[in-house]
Amino acid sequence: MAKTKVALHFWHHPIIALGKALTAIHGSGWEGSSGDTLPIGLFYTPKRCLFGRVSADGIIETPEDEGLDLCEVFEARIFNAVGELRWLQHSEGNTTGRAVFVTEEENTSPNGWQEGTSLFGLTPMPDAYLLWGTTTGWNRKKAWLQLATPRIGGLYVPIPSTVLPGENKRLRLLRREYLGCAEEQHGNMAVLEDRLLGVEELR
Description:
Shape: globular
Largest sheet: 11 strands, antiparallel
């Protein structure tokens, strides 16, 4: 049975702060409303990599009371089933960066962003990254679980309602690859793009 073909659409902004990028796409239909539809993200700072969840009002929530200082972030990938926002800092000490929003939804476009070249006729393929560690069963904050391993330490992960608190569970980061013909390179089928989708329990 032939797999359904999809298109992937891109919107770019060459110079924008991470907070403003989040504000720009908030209300475009991407952000979700509550629970499992809310985007989550991976945020990279010079000291650590951590997960965060974007609330319905556009605030980044973390399991820590002090939250996340966006000025410390140099790279971020924020995503849900609808799309993924990627942001990369221009240079050290600079609060602006380049942003791109990737989605299969043609009408989900941030206001004022540049439309990129869409990719058509892609075959979506499910994939996942296994997150290191197992759950400790300690739910520090509602809808968060801690993954831990003795050699690395702990990592708090925002979880969907389908994952219940408990010990020794494994979680994985869902992603989708997009296969298409690489005409400008060798003409063969290749992975032309991918995007992150969410977190689920490995069963």
